[in-house]
Amino acid sequence: MNTKTNIIDGKAIADIIGNELKAESALFFQKKKIKPHLSVIIVGSDPAALFYVRMIERTCQKVDFEFTKHALPEETTEEGLLSLLKGLNEDEAIHGIIVQTPLPKQINEDHIREAVHPGKDVDCFNPVNMGKLAMGNPDFLPCTPNAVFEILKREKIAVEGKHVVIVGRSSVVGKPLALILLLKQPDANASVTVCHSRTKDLASLCRQGDVVVAAVGVARLVKGNMVKQGAVVIDVGTNEEGGKLVGDVDFEEVSPLASRITPVPGGVGPVTNMMLMKNTLQAAQKKLLS
Q1: What are the sequence ranges of the domains in the chain?
Q2: Which CATH number fits domain 143-268: 3.30.160.40, 3.40.50.720, 1.10.10.350, 3.40.1360.10?
Q3: Surface-to-core class of residue 216, CB atoms within 10 Å of its CB (0-12 exposed, 13-18 middle, 19+ buried)
Q4: Dist. CA 17–CA 262, nearest whole Å
Q5: Is the full-model pTM beyond 0.85?
Q6: Topology (CATH level 3) of domain 33-117
Q7: Tens digit of each residue's pLDDT (9 = 90 or more) over 15-38
Q8: Quick one: which H or E segment has residue 62?
């Protein structure tokens, strides 16, 4: 198969979504005189976290959202961070809040997730929002899993009744993606298998997948012998190898077999940022209805 024709262009999809969100936000401003406003908190100076926050700021600029960054020193206490969160929760002008991880060891991440108001939890990490997703009635969808879902929908890759194999069981991607694909709605209704480090005969299970999603954080884990001919392969992984980014899928081995495949970089990542914008706009709209 000509791999040039089967590569999913995540950047192009993100650009389309961005234009849609910018137009919807402009209409919202025209009617309500309100711009969606995202506030990001970063504690310390982790390079990857700083890079991600810069990407969020640029994405906000693309869709004409308000953006505020709160950069706190590494020695910030949990009480200090909770105090800032309380103020942001109560600020009517703020619609979405993100606390960038990792956090310093003196701060309990679970406490912070629970402290973000569910209505402003645009990352969907608060247990209330995760619980609503598990019950099949979500307010927000977690950004990275929703990016995978959005790609499948935009590329007209039907998963209803199909077997989706997810490699990775994290609470950030693997588990919430399984819950999204199991939703009782036309674009979902998949049969889902979630694999992990204790799964026996991982290759055999992956070969059963009509769609294989790799989200485990191990460079080039998914090899050509783990994917059946014609499968759709979505690579969520971002790993550094030899000074460049590579995914969880061995692209050179797998792309000739896949009917569609996302590259790294340029696949799921750009769409993830747009899902964050989508949740922020949704939060602003819901705020007016509450």
Answers
A1: 33-117, 143-268
A2: 3.40.50.720
A3: buried
A4: 17
A5: yes
A6: Rossmann fold (3.40.50)
A7: 999 999 999 999 999 999 999 999
A8: helix 47-63
